[in-house]
Design brief:
The chain is 33% helix and 28% strand. It has 13 helices and 16 strands. The strands form 2 sheets. Strands 1, 2, 3, 4, 5, 6, 7 and 8 form an 8-stranded mixed β-sheet that branches. It has an 8-stranded antiparallel β-barrel with strand order 9-10-11-12-13-14-15-16. Helix 1 (17-31) packs across helix 12 and helix 6 (110-121) runs antiparallel to helix 7 (161-168). The protein is elongated, with a radius of gyration of 27 Å. The two termini are 32 Å apart.
């Protein structure tokens, strides 16, 4: 059976900026890699599932909307302020009774969210999504169980894309519930996060029901951030209905996401499941903080996480598992290099003489990790390290005299043909150091 590739996107309100940023960066990576074989992030996946804000991203991606444009829903054209739109009140009401409204009504009106979704999806329906299988989660408040809108289900074809996303994003206390007719019955729908804020298990279940086995499924799951924010014993014991209202929604969403991650990790073989989740400061966890300073902090957190070497390696591994060919980091140094290095003793040694030697080295690369060894020359050595932007930083050791130490090389990014830097070695005979230059001979 052919491999089934699934993308799952969590709910999280305005924190949807994080997976939107990830998809934008992934799109840039594909565009910078001519040998990738695909030109669009959406084309990496057969099935795309989302909850709440993740449902909006999933539907947009499946509908052919570029990631750059999707990100603008969260940071651009004032979409965020339109989505999180509070009821209009006179000044006197705002001063004296807004707290009463917040106790008995949703914080935000539906009109702002609905207008943004309608502008985004126009009159397109689920049946118009043909290149991918789109799954959107919601919670049926009448039957008290989850409901999944499925573009592959002929009975769901007439649902408007904007409407299914509106249902999935109807977070209690934040937005009013949404009504849809399901199987001929008017049904109140709430945020899909009440059942599965991380919808990965639901996506997994759907493809297994259609005959796929865990060995043939590759699933990429995008979170919207987490924070370790403990609730004190006094708060846990002392809160009542009013003070638990919003915290309990956030706890339900975050708690289910963690459990669902564990479920999928248990079912799928190692190498078939990739979860990307950003740690945030607790003040960034709110679903509705739309001020520019918070949006900037969320994007910085996402940029920092996705710029980490270990994250880059996992992205590369995920792309390989998805069947994308020839995807490499932007810095690729695997191959054979001509090597020249100078060496002398500690400059404090009055008898120090600088010497120059030449040899050749062979470098292999996996993700952003490299290993190498000398293949010519009198002095034999091996080395390993990691690529950080245009720098290669690592350790080397001699195979004859047991010298060892660090090295730091920098790639000439204009030509990608030269690495230049320094090395240091220590051993029983003392301290050595020198310059190390490598010229590319061929690429692996």
């Amino acid at each position: 059976m052919e491999r089934i590739r699934v993308l799952s996107i969590d709910g999280g309100g305005i924190r949807g900026l994080i997976p939107a940023y990830f998809l934008e960066q992934l799109q840039s990576l594909l565009e910078d890699t001519p040998g990738a074989g695909v030109s669009s992030v959406a084309d990496l996946f057969d099935v795309i599932i989302g909850t709440s804000t993740g449902a909006i991203i999933a539907a947009a991606l499946a509908d052919g909307i570029p990631p750059e444009q999707i990100k603008k829903l969260y940071r651009g054209h004032e979409s965020a302020s339109r989505i999180f739109q509070k009821p209009r009140r006179c000044r006197w009401f705002r001063r004296t009774r807004s707290f009463v409204h917040d106790l008995f009504s949703p914080t935000y009106v539906a009109e702002g969210l609905e207008s943004v979704l309608q502008e985004q999806f126009k009159k397109r329906r689920l049946r118009d999504v043909k290149e991918h299988r789109l799954l959107v989660t919601a919670f049926d408040a009448q039957s008290r169980r989850h409901f999944v809108f499925d573009s592959a289900d002929p009975q769901h074809g007439d649902y408007d894309l904007w409407s299914v996303c509106r249902a999935s994003a109807a977070a209690p206390t934040y937005f009013p519930g949404h009504e849809e007719t399901i199987a001929g019955v008017r049904t109140p729908l709430l945020d899909g996060g009440l059942a599965a804020n991380n919808p990965a298990p639901l996506g997994l279940t759907r493809v297994v029901e259609h005959g796929a086995t865990p060995e043939n499924i590759v699933l990429v799951s995008l979170g919207t951030g987490y924070a370790e924010e403990p609730i004190s014993i006094d708060a846990a014991k002392g809160r009542g209905k009013a003070t638990w209202a919003k915290p309990i929604i956030d706890l339900l969403f975050d708690g289910s996401a963690t459990v669902n991650d564990k479920v999928v990790r248990t079912i799928l073989p190692k190498g078939n499941y990739y979860r990307f989740q950003v740690r945030l400061e607790k003040e960034r966890m709110a679903l509705d903080r739309i001020e520019e300073s918070n949006l900037e902090s969320l994007e910085i957190a996402a940029s920092t996480y996705f710029g980490r070497n270990d994250t880059k390696e996992r992205i590369n591994d995920a792309l390989n598992a998805l069947g994308v060919g020839a995807v490499r980091p932007r810095v690729w140094i695997a191959g054979t290099w001509g090597s020249q290095f100078s060496y002398n003793r500690d400059p404090g040694d009055p008898y120090a003489d600088e010497k120059v030697d030449r040899d050749r080295v062979e470098i292999t690369q996996s993700g952003l990790s490299i290993q190498g060894k000398s293949i010519e020359g009198e002095y034999t050595y091996e080395f390993s390290g990691r690529i950080e932007n245009a720098d290669v930083i690592g350790e080397w050791r001699g195979l004859q005299n047991k010298l060892m130490g660090p090295f730091h090389l920098r790639l000439n990014v204009d030509t990608s043909q030269e690495l230049d830097g320094y090395w240091i070695g220590t051993g029983a005979s003392g301290l050595y150091h020198g310059r190390w230059t490598l010229q590319r001979e061929n690429v692996e």
